[in-house]
Design goal:
By secondary structure, the chain is an all-alpha fold. The protein is built from 14 helices and no strands. Helix 2 runs parallel beside helix 4, helix 5 packs antiparallel against helix 6 and helix 9 packs antiparallel against helix 10. 58% of the residues are buried.
């Protein structure tokens, strides 16, 4: 809901339908993953995951409410939205690796692959409702109140985290404070050829293929002449494929780099077909196989990385994974936004509403890019 309202606000209120500005907004949400990734991974390996998540959820909720107040009082300007997007990105950069590794606190190692898939399924079930509901609410009460509602819902996650019985957690080895811990994460990934393949594939697809919130916005508004409700429907129907891919991934006990590569190829074919659809509804329906392929790739990649990495390194390796998944967005989104402005929406690669595998945030969830709580 937050991302749909934010991008619609930038596109239709704060600019004259500038997809470049939407691309910059999206990019600012994810540049902290690129700059802070190694640091946040070390933090996730050292600290109590639940305590860190409580802090990040409080910060995320406060940012949503503050932005909503600025919009409702008429004080919001484009620069303010940029600043809030960047601040939310910083919070998400600390939240994401902790949230990913927190799954290991809740389930034993032999169930981790299934748990990652269920995590993605629950997130994408919410994405079936969120975008469509956000579009309707924007039309009824405006973006400001959508931000307020989103901020308030963080309270449910905070209460859930506080209510968990810590004595029943599955113990995970924590990294001890030592010099060179950031480098250790890079060194470990460099020595794993299968992880390098996954990282390269995810980086390429993330840079040029994932995130539909930008292109969906400009396709709905400019190509098809639709309003916020129809923009929200795009995200909800796309999530049907995402949810299906995540549910099937939850049944899979042996994720592999090979499946990541095959699903990435399928995503490329499905995205090309989607871009050629002549009408609004054919474009929307074509998003189902796109979402399915994307979530199959992301959930398989996530599960492979987590289940094959030692516990004391998992936070650092997952933070590097989040860097290639989310960190490519600041590079790709402004470029794709410029393409949308000057060459037309159909030629812009499929960027914007990040498909999430429970990895990422507040948002490029995404779509792909995200979890315990992202809205």
């Amino acid at each position: 809901m937050q991302r749909v309202a934010q991008d619609w606000l930038v596109l239709t209120v704060l600019t004259n339908e500038s997809s470049t500005a939407v691309g910059i907004t999206t990019g600012l949400q994810f540049v902290p993953f690129l700059l802070l990734g190694p640091l946040t991974g070390v933090v996730a390996d050292r600290v109590d995951h639940r305590k860190l998540l409580i802090i990040t959820q409080i910060a995320g909720g406060a940012l949503g409410i503050a932005l909503g107040i600025m919009v409702l009082t008429g004080n919001a300007q484009l620069g303010h939205v940029y600043a809030f997007a960047l601040a939310l990105g910083i919070v998400s950069a600390f939240d994401a690796p902790a949230r990913q590794t927190f799954v290991g606190d809740l389930v034993p190692r032999d169930k981790l692959s299934n748990a990652v898939g269920l995590n993605s399924a629950s997130f994408n079930a919410a994405r079936l409702i969120g975008p469509g509901l956000s579009g309707i609410l924007i039309g009824l009460i405006g973006s400001g109140w959508v931000f307020i509602l989103n901020g308030a819902t963080f309270g449910a996650t905070i209460i859930a985290l506080l209510a968990m019985r810590k004595g029943e957690f599955n113990h995970q080895e924590r990294a001890k404070r030592a010099a060179g811990q950031v480098v250790d994460g890079f060194r470990y990934v460099r020595g794993r050829r299968d992880l390098l393949v996954i990282f390269v594939v995810v980086c390429v697809v993330s840079t040029f293929g994932l995130n539909f919130q930008l292109t969906s916005a400009i396709m709905a508004r400019i190509e098809f002449g639709r309003g916020p409700e129809d923009y929200g429907i795009m995200g909800s129907i796309l999530a049907i494929g995402s949810l299906t891919g995540a549910v099937l991934a939850a049944r899979r006990t042996a994720p592999s780099a090979r499946l990541v590569v095959l699903s990435a190829a399928g995503f490329g074919v499905a995205s090309g077909a989607m871009a050629l659809m002549p009408t609004y509804w054919s474009y929307v329906i074509a998003g189902i196989p796109v979402g399915f392929m994307a979530l199959t790739m992301l959930t398989t990649a996530n599960a492979t990385v987590q289940t094959t990495t030692p516990e004391h390194l998992r936070g650092r390796v997952m933070s590097l994974y989040m860097m290639v998944l989310m960190g490519a967005t600041p590079i790709g989104s402004p470029i794709v936004g410029w393409i949308g402005d000057y060459l037309g929406p159909r030629l812009a690669p499929r960027r914007g509403h990040r498909l999430h595998d429970g990895a990422g945030g507040g948002g490029r969830c995404a779509d792909p890019r995200c979890g315990a709580r992202q809205a």
